Amino acid sequence: MRLVGDNVEVGIYTTKEARAIAEEQELDLVEISPKADPPVCKIMDYKKFLYEQKKREKALKSKATKVVIKEIRFGPQTDDHDYEFKKKHAEKFLKEGAKLKAFVFFKGRSIVFKEQGQILLLRLAQDLEEFGKVEQMPRLEGKRMTMFIAPKK
């Protein structure tokens, strides 16, 4: 096997010799590339390697942005004052960088007013055009019509 690592002369050794060198340095013999010809092994502190790898993954995970989805619920016959109130909240959510899930919930026989619900959501999308862009147009799923708006960067 080919042996690499710190404080090791790079070369081809037998398995016994490689193990002896690793034990002499009180480190681990780790196979890096088993498919290579000859296989490549490295002498290193494996516990320290795992620790640093976890640390790197944790740092990357903390830098990743978490997508927050805020919901706003309307009825098919939401009046203007309630609409404006909810629109202000939607603006605030989009300015904070959260995605917005606006939906119209149809209770009982109000499902007859599908067009009103769609008009309401499209009006909301038009009013929030400067703060976010529509990710998914209004779509009816069971008793609710849903629309997603993503914030503009």
Automatic annotation (TrEMBL):
Give the Translation initiation factor 3 C-terminal domain ranges.
67-152
Q: Biological process GO terms, please?
A: ribosome disassembly
Listed SUPFAM superfamilies? Translation initiation factor IF3, C-terminal domain (SSF55200), Translation initiation factor IF3, N-terminal domain (SSF54364)
Among Gene3D superfamilies, the record links this protein to: Translation initiation factor 3 (IF-3), C-terminal domain, Translation initiation factor 3 (IF-3), N-terminal domain
By its UniProt entry, which InterPro entries does this protein fall under? T_IF-3_C_sf, T_IF-3_N_sf, Translation_initiation_fac_3, Translation_initiation_fac_3_C, Translation_initiation_fac_3_N
Domain (Translation initiation factor 3 N-terminal): residue spans on this chain = 2-59
Instruction: State any single GO MF term.
Output: ribosome binding
One GO CC annotation: membrane
Alphabetically ordered keywords of this record? Initiation factor, Protein biosynthesis
Say which family it is in. Answer: Belongs to the IF-3 family.
Know the name of this protein? Translation initiation factor IF-3
Source organism per UniProt: Olleya aquimaris
